[in-house]
Design a protein that fits this description.
Layout lengths: L7 H18 L2 E3 L18 E5 L26 H8 L3 E6 L27 H8 L5 E6 L5 H6 L3 E4 L19 E6 L2 H12 L20 E4 L10 H16 L3 E4 L6 H24 L8 H11 L3 H16 L10 E5 L19 H6 L3 E8 L5 E7 L5 H14 L13
Parallel strand pairs: 2-3, 2-4, 7-8, 7-9
Antiparallel strand pairs: 1-3, 4-6, 5-6, 5-10, 9-11, 10-11
Helix pairs in contact: 5-11, 7-8, 7-9
Length: 419
């Protein structure tokens, strides 16, 4: 009897899980019937199934950017990140649902913990596929909160690198001044592997196994509640305070911190930049086919048309100023901790949730990691968000690994189908 290819077990397990769950989960818009397994099997990502958000070009699979406007579209080339994954021996497992153009018109994906609730967005399918245990790694993008929030809603880990660390060639623009590529993973270990091999393009060694990735206990953590804390749901507040108590019980000094601007101002600047640049990225592609685009997409284009280039230029000047000083708030803090969203995953699929607490790290270009931190009485996951210094992603991931070890872990959910 021949020995199975080392990739076969991982890919076969992902295929079985997808066949069992995706009829209800609806995380994927495309999965190949069969897979070409890599010739090279050396390396941490060799043979690992990776799901790819449908905003990211794949030459051998359809890429529709979540829009009926691009139904049947097949790019000529892989995005940079897809080509990099293939070169490392990863198996591109399929394309996952995205909201239209990574904005707000949602797809059919449900939350793996409670299918009556949203998985978040815009990386909806990627978060659900990891949260349900189909794959360990899925690609996402984040312009406001589209990696951190859906990862949190689905009980997975999310890692948004420092702005600009990963080339976005072959990824459909939403707002280039804000767009990040990122990863939704089943553990911090896999996020660290992606950081080493993709975000750092192999310049640092990837941990060969989970026990070779070192957890780093922080000495001092900044607590970011912001001026909007009163608008956070009481159960989310309670979970955050429980995490803070756990940190303190382990001897970590915790102290309130503020960012360079109030959260309301940071979100307003994010919204202005995104509207202008989103209009530029989308309006030409839906021109004459507006009826095929969703209402949120059309509203974004209309809002962007009302912003002129002078206003946008001033907003970019402000953005550059804030990013130059983004690390100033850290002082002696090893990281800053905050919530991922003011609520758990919303009921229904029309809205993907509130990303206001994700916007500051995204706007400032700082790395962020979401870590599961328990679940509600409705069996919906909570998550906390760690924010680190610009270009110090590995240190942040070490803190995230430590936090994941001291917080109660989440078991993989049985997909819930409400009666």
């Amino acid at each position: 009897m021949s020995t199975p290819h080392p990739s076969e077990n991982a890919v076969a397990a992902a295929m079985r899980a997808a066949e069992q769950l995706d009829g209800t989960l609806r995380a994927f818009v495309h999965r190949p019937v069969s897979y070409a397994l890599p010739d090279a099997v050396d390396g941490t990502l060799a043979g690992v199934p990776v799901a790819v958000k449908d905003l990211i070009d794949t030459a051998d699979m359809p890429t529709t950017y979540g829009s009926k406007v691009f139904a049947g579209h097949r790019p000529q080339n892989d995005a940079w990140i897809v080509a990099r994954l293939r070169s490392l021996g990863a198996v591109i497992f399929g394309k996952t649902v995205t909201t239209e153009f990574a904005w707000r018109d949602a797809g059919p994906t449900v939350n793996p913990w409670n299918s009556a609730h949203s998985p978040g967005g815009s990386s909806s399918g990627s978060a659900a596929a990891v949260g349900a245990g189909i794959v360990d790694i899925a690609l996402g993008t984040q312009t406001v909160g589209s990696v951190i929030r859906p990862a949190s809603y689905c009980g997975a880990f999310g890692y948004k690198p420092t702005f600009g660390l990963i080339p976005t060639d072959g990824v459909h623009d939403l707002a280039p001044s804000l767009d990040h590529l990122g990863f939704i993973t089943s553990s911090v270990y896999w996020a660290a592997v992606c950081h080493a091999l993709i975000a750092r393009n192999g310049a640092i060694a990837a941990p060969a196994s989970p026990d070779q990735f070192e957890a780093v206990k922080p000495r001092k953590i900044g607590l970011y509640r912001s001026s909007q804390w009163a608008q956070v749901a009481p159960d989310v507040q309670a979970n955050f305070e429980a995490v803070v108590k756990r940190l303190q019980a382990h001897g970590v000094h915790c102290e309130a911190v503020e960012l360079s601007d109030d959260i309301v101002a940071l979100n307003a600047l994010t919204s202005e930049i995104l509207a202008f640049e989103g209009c530029v990225a989308i309006q030409g592609e839906i021109a004459g086919r507006e009826a095929l685009a969703g209402p949120y997409t059309r509203e974004l284009v209309a809002r962007g048309q009302a912003i002129d280039e002078v206003e946008h230029g001033a907003a970019i000047e402000r953005l550059d100023y804030l990013r130059e000083r983004a690390n100033d708030c850290f002082g002696e803090f090893d990281a800053i901790i905050t919530i991922t969203s003011p609520t758990t995953a919303l009921p229904g699929l029309e809205k993907t949730g509130d990303a206001s607490f994700c916007a500051p790290a995204t706007l400032l270009g700082l790395p962020a990691v979401s870590v599961p931190s328990g679940f509600s009485g409705e069996l919906l996951p909570y998550g906390v968000q760690l924010i680190g210094r610009s270009d110090d992603d590995l240190a942040l991931l070490g803190v995230a690994q430590w936090l994941s070890e001291v917080l109660p872990g989440l078991r993989r959910p049985a997909l819930l189908v409400p009666q």
